[in-house]
């Protein structure tokens, strides 16, 4: 197990390095100059070439690309994510303000998707062909295919504009006003969890149907064990391995979906920060947010792989 974890950590480090290289050089292939965008949006029309070159030197954009890359990596290793051109603020401070907002939405969506997806899939698998299965299965297919940004706009139109039940956007910290926080998060969380919930429900149903046909399940029934013991001790645990895999993918989907959700609902989180930074070609912010998202996904996938051995003792790491 220790050797396996070390190998996975090495591969995770290599993946992070490749991710930094792709993002760093891809951003610089985009047409335009981030300083010119910043100057235009700051309404400084009379800035001279000397002042522009001074700004370029301050942000390290006057050096060759390879030097800029290694300077940025050196700063990241030392805990310095750089300074935003557009916001004129430390990237670490920007992320410290935005990441809790994205985490608040993402963690709630992940928990709801995992619990409801697992339970609904378990129910559909145990009641195959019955009413529960006939309701859960079509809804799961719809949830997988529905575009989350379209769903967000639809929810805003119905519950925000037409019915007026929920605020159409914005974010309030739960420490400031818990009730307002709950109302503002209902629609974003619903949009973020729908794909993960549908995927887990569908996969759980298939897994339950497969496990229920195994010999040891028939033996348990023949021994006269109660339905609750068979379902929760044998069927559920052995059906969870594909779900654990999907949970790893769900983390990436949730953080990736935050880009759309936070834009639709005007939430000042990491996703919206990334979108604004891409349009403004704020290189350092895009690099830092992508690096953080990538690191989170890699760590979650490592935890998922390690958990396989606990769920199924037959799995051994060599």
Write the layout of secondary structure elements.
Layout: H1 2-29, H2 34-41, H3 49-58, H4 65-77, H5 91-126, H6 131-145, H7 148-162, H8 178-211, H9 215-222, H10 227-264, H11 270-279, H12 283-311
Question: In a few lines, what is going on in this structure?
Answer:
With 318 residues, this protein is an all-alpha fold. 77% of the residues lie in helices and 0% in strands. It is globular.
| CA-atom Rg in angstroms | 24 Å
CATH C-level label of the domain at 91-311: Mainly Alpha
Strand pairing plus helix content: what structural class?
Answer: mainly alpha
**CATH superfamily of the domain at 91-311, please?**
MetI-like
> Helices and strands, in N-to-C order?
HHHHHHHHHHHH
CATH hierarchy: architecture of the domain at 91-311: Orthogonal Bundle
Unreliable spans: none
Summarize the amount of helix as a percent range.
over 70%
Give a short account of the largest sheet.
none
Mean pLDDT: 78
CATH-derived topology of the domain at 91-311: MetI-like fold
